[in-house]
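Re: [ENG-882] Designed sequences occasionally contain unexpected residues at chain ends

Forwarding the minimal case from QA. Structure tokens:
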């Protein structure tokens, strides 16, 4: 299984952050992305792991990138891949644009390994209302980041230094007149020796006028299918 993971790791590196629209996303140097014009950014942080692959600051997706990697210094590795593709929504004649992210984690060591993942959403402009429900973030009622794996919940705040709940919540809502809402979705990751796992995330970046997918519609979309579509598009370039 680990061999298959490593082979897949090498194959996807050729298109790790391919995007169909150069205007859609900006890659963040700390590990994450910001949909341009959406008013928020998403950052991935892994406890006790350090970035090991440099990437260009603020590079707009639309060409091949190096991806984002972390290591714990003892063998465990993680890789974040991002793609952006067009996708039809409802009966709209115009296709929308979806961003997808997947985090691949490998533990090749001979001992169990565990860490925690924090997926943070913060203003890139303003977020006036933020909610968490069913491991998905909502901004003003619209799903903006949907995880395909259950989380431990999220911690929300209405300002950078506001008092925060002590434990993650499965359902919560905050509002800010200044647009300073933010939150972090928490995942507990545990891998036996020689095992791997993949977590996927979906973000509607650009929607046709009048169209807005609900959470169930987002859940019906496969992150792996979006990456397969991005790979085909990249191969035609």
């Amino acid at each position: 299984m680990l061999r298959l993971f490593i082979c897949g790791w090498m194959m996807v590196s050729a298109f790790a952050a391919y995007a169909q629209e150069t205007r859609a996303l900006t890659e963040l140097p700390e590990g994450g992305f910001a949909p341009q014009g959406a008013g928020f950014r998403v950052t991935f942080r892994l406890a006790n792991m350090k970035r090991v692959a440099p990437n260009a600051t603020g590079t707009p997706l639309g060409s091949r990138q190096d991806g984002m990697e972390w290591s714990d210094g003892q063998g465990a590795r993680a890789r974040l891949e991002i793609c952006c593709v067009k996708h039809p929504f409802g009966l709209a004649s115009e296709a929308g644009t979806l961003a997808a992210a997947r985090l691949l984690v490998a533990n090749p060591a001979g001992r169990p390994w565990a860490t925690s993942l924090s997926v943070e959403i913060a203003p890139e402009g303003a977020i006036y209302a933020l909610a968490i429900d069913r491991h998905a973030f909502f901004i003003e009622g619209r799903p903006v980041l949907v995880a395909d794996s259950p989380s431990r919940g999220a911690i929300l705040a209405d300002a950078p230094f506001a008092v925060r709940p002590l434990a993650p919540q499965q359902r919560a809502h905050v509002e800010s007149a200044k647009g300073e809402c933010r939150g972090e979705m928490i995942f507990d990751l545990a891998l036996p020796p020689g095992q791997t796992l993949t977590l996927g995330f979906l973000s509607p970046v650009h929607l046709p006028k009048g169209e807005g997918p609900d959470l169930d519609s987002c859940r019906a979309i496969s992150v792996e299918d979006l990456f397969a579509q991005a790979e085909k598009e990249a191969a035609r370039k």
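QA comment: On inspection the terminal residues look reasonable. The chain has one domain: 2-235. Proposing we downgrade this to a documentation issue.
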